[in-house]
Amino acid sequence: MALDITxxxxxxxxxxxxxxxxxxxxxxxxxxxxVTDPNKCIACGQCELRCPDFAIKLVKPGKxxxxx
Amino acid sequence: xxxIEKYLRQSALPHIWCPGCGNGILLAAILRxxxxxxxxxxxxxxxxxxxxxxxxxxxxxxxxVHTAHGRALTFATGIKLAKPELNVIVxxxxxxxxxxxxxxxxxxxxxxxxxxxxxxNNNIYGMTGGQYSPLTPMDxxxxxxxxxxxxxxFDIAALAIAAGATYVARGTAFHAQLxxxxxxxxxxxxxxxxxxxxTQCPISYGRKNKMGSAADMLAWQRDKAVMVQAxxxxxxxxxxxxxxxxxxYRSVAPEYTAEYDKLIARVSKKGGK
Lengths: 68, 273
Description:
The complex is a heterodimer. Chain A is an alpha+beta fold. Chain A contains two helices and four strands, in the order E-H-E-E-H-E. Chain A has a single domain, classed as Alpha-Beta Plaits (2-Layer Sandwich), CATH 3.30.70.20. Chain A has a two-stranded antiparallel sheet. Chain A has a two-stranded antiparallel ribbon with strand order 2-3. Residues 64-68 of chain A have low confidence and may be disordered. Chain B is α/β, with parallel strands linked by helices. In chain B, helix 1 crosses helix 6, helix 3 packs across helix 4 and helix 4 (102-111) crosses helix 5. Chain B is globular and about 65 Å long. Chain B starts with 22 loop residues before the first helix and ends with a helix. The model of chain B has no long low-confidence stretch (mean pLDDT 97). Classes of the chains: A alpha+beta, B alpha/beta.
């Protein structure tokens, strides 16, 4: 899992869904973001970069929490 | 948000901005710039005015001052003069900085005070209900311009350069990584730095102007922005309807607080005469 998602911060704007190059982000029935297929994530960070709500954090594989 | 969590007041999140508002993207880009420079949180002051943009200071884990409408630069000038060793960052909006704060803006630029000002430019007064600002484009709609805006808008960069700013750049929420780099350079500049940060207001501006979703508005920024390096290779007609992003201007001029210190030293030597 490369993405650490804080759903309570998500406002369901859909920016990450639109810009995910692998199209693996979607909004659930509550309008919150989730990853449809974690195995397809390429950890590009486009979602984290443009999430206006600090709801997505990219965790580099093998390094644990990238925040140290 | 890797690496920037420590700069956020987690207890204040989620923030107040509307779904899809670009202000959070700009805030993250600014925090990444602060992280890159490794600024000491205790020696960094964030000063904001009034408006959607200026709520940013409340989420930032630094010494922060949320001031009066249009007056962020006056407070920031005072803070920098009192303690020139502090890093002072000003966060303001297009209305806050160029309408009610317009005079402070040009004079802070003229004085070349060592401040970094990031203008969250969403082309509208979002917080108060979508009234037009000095950055609302001609022909665009606002609640106070229901039939289309008949005024020309300011070019913040040209205004800042003419007034004397020594570092001027423009970025967008879409080009968030570039924006981080521009803010880094702005903070590094010893003088008045202005970064015009174009952001989307999907609620008050986007709806009124039928610009689609927040993602559509980000795509608009992507499609309309031209990197400054590419401008010389383009014909004027190709630049029609586009805007230029990147580092637009840089110069060297005496910095206000340094000049003030020199004056104090000079006058003190003469015994105050």
